[in-house]
Amino acid sequence: MSLRTAFTELFGVAHPIALAPMGGSAGGALAAAVANGGGLGPVGGGRGDPEWLERELVPERPEPHGVGLPHLSGQSNCSTSD
Fold first, then answer.
1. Taking the model in full, what pTM does it have?
2. Over 70: is that where the pLDDT of 78 sits?
3. Contact criterion met (CB below 8 Å) for 42 and 21
4. Which among 15, 36, 43, 75 has most CB atoms closer than 10 A?
């Protein structure tokens, strides 16, 4: 049984579950397990190591998947208001 939400519709998953893409902890095996269970399984790419990402993002991975990268603005005070 699936729960339909805006999240499940947007990402095309069966369950509104997403793996937190923690660099070094959320590798390909964990991301695949989440995706195989009907959730969204992104790999944590925070370390920016291209060789590690290439190993973790194997073509046999289930869909949907992605890579979580940190956003570093270079500003000490980020604001959305002007």
1. 0.72
2. no
3. yes
4. 43
